[in-house]
Amino acid sequence: MSNKIQKVAIVFFSPQENTRMVAEWFRDIFQEKGIDARTRDLTGLNRNGISEAEIGFLERMDLLLVGSPVYSWHIASPVEWFASRLPRVHNKLAVPFVTYGGVNSGAALAELARSLQKHGYLIAGAGKFLGKHSLMFGGKKPLGRNHPDAGEKALTKKLVDKIISGSFEEEGAADSISWQTLNNKRALVRMLSRTVNMKSLGPMMPKISINPEKCTKCQVCLEACPVRVISINTAPRILTGCIYCYNCVRLCPEGVFEASMAGVGIGIRGMAVMNRERPQSQIW
């Protein structure tokens, strides 16, 4: 199989802007090298929309990059849905990448690589990138502040150069990366990642209260929700499938959605010290 890359698809989900920023860096770097690179944003799509997103778009691509924020040590559910619906291929190239808020990148990168490999992709590279922690929007000096920065951008360029210069043979694919290589966390983290997830951590997340009397039906919350689980038909409410991004709390101009984030920052900083994620940004 020739490793000449002419067309690149970059699919990502980004409730904040961290993953989008990295995805657009990848796109721009490939384009600067004369390679046709296109992004596909899963943010704001429901399951049906994500199911339709990959049809036709990926068939003509030589390389697929898939990016996700890390939520509760795992890839975000929309990226999981997308990866599970990928058509089966034979030794096409793929690159998983994740962004996270400096606490723990968990099992996200390894499980995304594993899903891609199950669908016949060769992992040509991978990356984890530090970004501002999404739950520390109300406090001072959030973890990952000012990231992704020039250092992360330099890593994206280095990864693109590695991918382009790599050799991937039909038999053996000596330069491809196994998902196990990316599962390089301490034993405790690997063990806890089996039980730490959105379902187990959901009850511990700050509860969102809703004040329907304040709602003017401006629809800002509908646009802000990255998984489209807010309804304002009769009164504002959050449906099943919330991923606790708190965009509705941050962005509603009328303060319809409220959550007490007091103490969240302290807990997050404590977990970051315990997990000792080093290096914070890395490529393979």
In summary, what is this structure?
This protein has 284 residues and is of the alpha/beta class. It starts with 6 loop residues before the first strand and ends with a strand.
What does the secondary structure layout of this molecule look like, with pairings?
Layout: E1 7-12, H1 18-32, E2 36-41, H2 47-53, E3 63-71, E4 74-75, H3 77-84, E5 92-100, H4 108-118, E6 121-123, E7 127-130, H5 150-165, H6 179-182, H7 187-192, H8 198-201, E8 209-210, H9 220-224, E9 230-231, E10 237-238, H10 247-251, E11 257-258, H11 264-275, E12 282-283
Parallel strand pairs: 1-2, 1-3, 3-5, 5-6, 5-7
Antiparallel strand pairs: 3-4, 7-12, 8-11, 9-10
Helix pairs in contact: 1-5
Structure write-up:
This protein is an alpha/beta fold and 284 residues long. The chain is built from eleven helices and twelve strands.
Number of domains: 2
CATH class of the largest domain: Alpha Beta
Number of helices: 11
Note the main sheet. Answer: 8 strands, mixed
Shape: globular
Descriptive tags:
11 helices, about 280 residues, 2 domains, eight-stranded mixed beta sheet, alpha/beta, about 35% helix, Rossmann fold, two-stranded antiparallel sheet
